[in-house]
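name: query_chain
kind: protein
chains: 1
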Amino acid sequence: MTTEEAAAYLKIPKASLLNLSSNGKVPYYKFQRRNRYLKSDLLKLLAVTRRGGFNGN
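structure:
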């Protein structure tokens, strides 16, 4: 995904995603001069940062 697509997917501003990427909190890949994000990496990020008490049982 492009930076714009990934930010929209996460529902955060593009600048926030770029900040998280530069701080090493969101993995990304360089393609030419642009950042690219894997949907699977974004899903893992959401799973790791999950909050709440729902156990799923």
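note: The chain has one domain: 3-48.
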